[in-house]
Amino acid sequence: MNAIQAVTVEWAMLGPVLTLAVAACVLLLVAATPARRGPWPFMLALAGLGAAGGSLLALAERPMQLSAFGDMLVVDQPALYMGGIVLLAALLAVLLSRQYLERAPAPAAEYYALLLLAALGMLVMGSTNNLLVIFLGLEILSVALYVLSGITRDWMRSLEAALKYFLLGAFSTGFILYGMAFLYGATGSLDLLAIAQRAGDLLAGAEGAGATPMLLVGLGLMIVGLGFKVAAVPFHWWAPDVYEGSPTPVTAFMAVGTKAVSFLVLLRVVTTAFGNTLVAEWTMVLGVLALLSMLVGNLVALVQRNIKRMLAFSSVAHAGYLLIAVAAGTDLGTSAMMFYFATYVLTTLGAFGVASLVAETTDAGDEGYGIMRYAGLGRSNPGLALAMTVFMLSLIGVPPTAGFIGKYFIFQAAVQKALEGSTLFLVLSVVGILLSVVSAAYYLRVIVTMYMTQPEGDPPQIRTAPDAGFAVIFSAAGIMYLGLFPSAIYDLTRSLHTTLQALAALWLT
Amino acid sequence: MLGMLLILVTFGSLDFGPVFRGVHVLVATPGSQALLTTIALLLFVGATGKSAQIPLFVWLPDAMAGPTPVSALIHAATMVTAGVYMVCRCAALFTAAPIALTTVAVVGGATALIAAMIACTQTDIKKVLAYSTVSQLGYMFLAAGVGAFSFAIFHVMTHAFFKALLFLAAGSVIHALSGEQDIRRMGRLTKGLPWTWGTFAVAAVAIAGIPPLAGFFSKDSILAATYFEQPWLWGLGVFTAGLTAFYIWRLVFLTFLSTDRVDKETRAHLHESPWSMLAPLVILAILAAVGGFVGVPAFLADSIPGLHGVAEVLPHYLEPVFREARVAGTGMGALGLHGAAAAHGAEAAAGHGAVTAASEWGLMGLSVLVALAGIALAALFYARGGDLPARIAVGLGSGYGLVRDRFRIDELYDLIILKPFYFSCRAADAFDRFVVDLLVNAVAIITEITGHVLKLFQTGSVRSYALSIFAGVVVLLALLVLT
Asked: What is the ipTM of this complex?
């Protein structure tokens, strides 16, 4: 490790990332030509995402090659899986964006370029075991998203969102970086696997007592930074304001994409680097964060009257459920978390998609998200209302939607830990299930409003462009499909934990 | 749910195997009785709700609004018997908790009686059947409560046959009469609906407990088991059996025989149901007729050549499941299950011998007599009363003895059953409205207020957000490092 090695360049491992980078650059060039006004940016973004998805699938077909670029990049199955989730989220967001951009005062080419760059950052962040590369990915995605959330420059809320996101994001990035520094200081390595080995040695050895606080602070600060990105309480403050102010397709994309890779990194940190050491400590911290997130997210969502803010707090609550799965630290927990994202990407993109469509008929831009706008939607736009019903039911976790299966797996993991005698997980399961019941109240309110409330004036006539309509239908159909045939994805997710462990074992032997 | 939680906490598992093994251990532990009883009772409360027992049976007749095939499915076969099945499946738990077991038996017996009485007063064909279901479920719990779990399941099965048949046949009648459900406006349907009439009659004979139809064997087994275990409950059971025969034949007479009280217009449209509706009726009628043979008591089979092979097929089939329960019960040493054991032919032969067989013959004869008496009474009241349509129309005023008697019964029931029943309904309603709703609303309001309070922290000010995050970091790190 000490000698300077010639790094073999395995370009193929970078396939999806490079594709996105090229597409983003082309988009930025297009932005300087008259073609920026036509359908070109949209088509280019779709093509870029399609090509990236194709090369991702090609990578998944190859015999597993775990690391590339001198262990800087780890292209394993979890990375590819989450990469797939991110690209799907980006694809659906792009489909929703075209119609949105007809009204929003934002430059299309730059918008799509930033969206692809954010996806690129997410891919990088997810496919590495190196702290520096994690940080690199995090910054690429964060900076792109800071700008994206403020890209509708004429809208005050959007600007406010961008500024808040940026300020608090910078604040939390500081914590992550500080945590990385502590880990490096304690172990002398930036690689999670090396950290695992070194931490094990340290804690087993005589100097363990001195090293423990440093490791703990490092781990704690990493959790804080990632907790900020996934909007876990008490680091969630930015989420409602930013979700509300950002362009709706961007909100949907960042709610899913950022959360997906941040959870993957969190999983890598706790299972790869600290899979054998300090387990009780991080389990406790993650458990407490999960508890707080579920409590605050669900309770505050209950009193929201703006659909985007409601979904923002709901996403805080869902971060809580996901934290349970990570805290479990078992193969059940890992596969539950992975599966949950397959359902979450469809549900969230779908729900924000409908919100974006419903809001769009008003010229006021961000005035269209009040719950009362949904009154009578069941009669005036039955298809859209039906899709929204599916999304809300999936968020509650009602069978036969995918959300039910996802939640079931998570609580299965928690109950398994509870049966092993963990009081923390007993509390988490009980509170989580009770709060799921509470959550039904605010999700069902949307359904009730759509079908049973008389609108004050005429119910809104929603125009749905074919591409956005396709995204919504695709999400709803996917939710039903996963709800009825969960094994399609679940078998895949079951293998992911094994991969992570195999990777650790490979290094340690 | 609470029972399940308690099981989870006590035994650390919800699987049957580990829990039952845990029961064995617990039985040997002094002072565990209260815990076991609590678990068993909590489970039983859940079962009463599901299986419509006192005091939770009011929903079942109300659930009759559904289409008739749905009623048949819910009431006869699937849902309501879930409670019975659950109690039987947890036999090990219940036998280890004699108090809970006795409670089950008493509640079951009382439900059987009260529901049968209510059934006698109803005029809606589906309501009669609904209360009949409640009553039969009471029998099943009675069986479970005296430890005769295999007989309970046996009765579940035979009941499924004849009650599904009754409901579907009733559906056929309603269909034929253009939606009429009131038995006061039926009568003389044997010609118009021969198949429906035939199958309905088979089911009515079966439920009344006339040999050799299905209902006879299962009901008689239950009564025999009860006799050995709790004689006074047996008396209750026999009386209820008489009532059962009475109300079901009252239904038969009023619906199919008696006088023609159908509207002219409806009569004109009267038609037998299509074969798609009749085929299930016929199949079920056959099952209701012969379904009881899988559980023919051994002593009876011994005395009838050719039946020996089939004796107690079902009880034996179910036996392994419940043996475990019995072992647990024996471990208790209290409130023996010898009664239930005696009811099983093989063990009866070993233990009680000829005496048991003789008394079982006696019991059987008695219950057949009671059933016949019930049918005869129904015939007396309704077949003859039905010959005088005008007098029925002016029933109250004209004062004809039999007709008036019938009204007295109705009024009596109204007074002693329905009035307190409605009163308790109103009381329950008031309780629900003022106490339960208050609690539920309080929870909702508190939740909502908490939400509002938490929302106040969402100030929109970046500075306060950053401060909160920082505070979170400090607390988190303190938690990590200091613990």
From this structure: 0.76
